[in-house]
Specification:
The protein contains 13 helices and no strands.
């Protein structure tokens, strides 16, 4: 698998967390469902089309991450199930001990499905938090403890990702790197100071797309 394809699959997997996080919404947020659903539909249309090879790779990643049957995931793709729904079903299958196909067949409102499976808000929230930490640690090349510490200090995931990459490439402490990012400079400026070329990480990675380069809050 080449680097661009790996990054596409990783981007899709991590991007889907934004949607799966919606499983933890409580009733107070129900009034916003219509607007959120419209936003989700827009995001679906904006996402890149996947080739058969990329779908197979995504199915493998889902199967490995959530311990579900890869053939069942591939069948869902062939039936044109969206990868957001595939990932949510896989996550709920892992948490509930049910099969992927069984959970996917229950699809309606995913929060209602979670309730039928006996999953609590706290269970989903804790699992999703840990999953986000693991993915951010992988992208930033930092350990989970460091990532969690930086999040608690209110650094956003985008800054943590880039600071971690620069720190890893330069051999410096991530705190010394992230402290260099000010309101009047860019991450490219910081990278140059540490003699790191960010372009090799930026190319082909949705987390380094132009519109997200400085301001992304996406995990």
């Amino acid at each position: 698998m080449n680097n661009i394809k790996k990054k596409l699959i990783a981007g899709i997997l991590s991007g889907a967390i934004i949607f799966t996080g919606g499983l933890a919404l409580n009733s107070v947020q129900a009034a916003d469902d219509s607007n959120k659903q419209q936003k989700v539909e827009r995001q679906r249309h904006e996402r890149p089309q996947m080739t058969d090879e990329q779908r197979a790779q995504f199915a493998q990643k889902v199967a490995e991450r959530y311990g579900v049957n890869q053939a069942e995931v591939e069948t869902a793709f062939k039936n044109n199930v969206h990868f957001d729904d595939i990932r949510i079903a896989a996550k709920l299958a892992k948490l509930s001990g049910k099969s992927f196909s069984e959970v996917l067949s229950m699809k309606s409102d995913w929060r209602q499905v979670a309730e039928k499976l006996g999953l609590t808000h706290q269970q989903i929230e804790e699992y999703t938090k840990n999953e986000r930490l693991e993915e951010l640690a992988e992208r930033s090349k930092l350990d989970k403890k460091t990532v969690e510490s930086l999040l608690k200090e209110n650094y956003n995931p985008h800054d943590i990702t880039i600071a971690g990459i620069i720190a890893n490439e330069s051999g410096k402490n991530v705190k010394s790197v992230i402290a260099k990012k000010k309101i009047n400079n860019s991450w490219e400026d910081v990278a140059k100071e540490f003699k790191v070329d960010l372009n090799k990480f930026r190319k082909g990675d949705r987390h380094f797309d132009d519109e997200d380069w400085e301001n992304s809050e996406r995990p």
